Amino acid sequence: MSWPDWIPLRTSLQSMSAYGAPQVPAEAVLNTNENPYPPSPELQAQITQAISQIVGTLNRYPDRDAVILRSALASYINERSQTNFGSENIWAANGSNEIIQSLFLACGSGVALGFTPSYSMHALISNVAGTTWINGERNSNFTFNSEIAVEQVEKLKPTLTFITTPNNPTGDAVPLAEIETLARAVAMHGGLLIVDEAYAEFSPEESAVSLIQAFPHIVVIRTMSKAFAFAGARVGYLVADLHIVNAMMLVRLPYHLSAITQAAAKVALDFRTELLGNVSQLVAARQELVKALNDLGLTTVPSAANFILFTGFKATSPQLWAALLEKGVLIRDVGLSSYLRVTVGNEAENKVFLEALTELL
Ligand SMILES: Cc1ncc(COP(=O)(O)O)c(C=O)c1O
User: Fold this and answer.
1) Which residue's alpha carbon is at the smallest distance from atom 7 of ligand 1?
2) Residues 295-324 pLDDT 10s
3) Fewest CB atoms less than 10 Å from the CB: which of 35, 158, 172, 359?
4) Domain boundary among 243, 270, 297
5) Measured between alpha carbons, how far is 316 from 296 in angstroms, rounded to an integer?
6) Mind listing the GO biological process terms from this record (predicted)?
7) In terms of domains, do 71 and 137 share one?
């Protein structure tokens, strides 16, 4: 894009493009790894009630430190990982993208490394923040390789090293022992190891939160957008040593998390048993979808998340993507030649997707 001279846009931004997963109407929307299940009528009613209780105080700023929500998030993490975190170990923001941005603002003074292909926003936010981003390597089958990763960390000595598990867009999850190996390598030269666990609830692997006590330079990023089916509410958080949380307070905007968001998220956490039940259903649907794709002669990358990367079709990725859209199915061309990524949807969406794909292959 060319920019008019009168905008004093920073030079580093001039060649960049905005993040832009297409938002177009489709019968099956399977492109942004959302959870297909809307909030149940009971959850909707409780959220509405919680918001109606605070609506009369919206003339006041919200709790700047979101302490009630952060305590509830700490309890949730402790329950799942048998840890002992308090609100001082949690920072919450408008989606985990804002968490990533805050980490760059606070600690992005050197080089940042991530093992790609991975979540594209890590590199994009790094560039926006003025941190040099380096694309590290994975195995040719896209799996994470801790030996290669350690070599890259030792060579580049990044201030921020990113690992995404399960990884987006490939879906593979990294065993805890390998994260620990990487954490040791990062500890040797200083810097933070950022473990992006946006899809953790879909994975059988143990969360890296259990490593934080031994390795205080590990920061785990989580989100309510996926397992909690709460993408529209925008709630992400990190789990870390309290000094990291204190650093987040230096860069956060005052009152960044609205009172409405805080109240709604607290209710969604109270409904975790119901919401995480839907996660088990999605994991089962993922297995069925993998089988159906394999039966169509396609190759799938093993996934521990709520999406599947697949290949083995004759058309190019943009061609098949466009042909599916014409049939009402929106999936994602993640820019990997001859691969496409599909999010696991509800039963009807998965059926529409498979029928459309069968016709096109
Ligand atoms: C790996 C990963 N991290 C973070 C995010 C951002 O999630 P949100 O900002 O909705 O919390 C996503 C979204 O797709 C993701 O795939």
Assistant:
1) 96
2) 999 999 999 999 999 999 999 999 999 999
3) 359
4) 270
5) 17
6) L-histidine biosynthetic process
7) yes
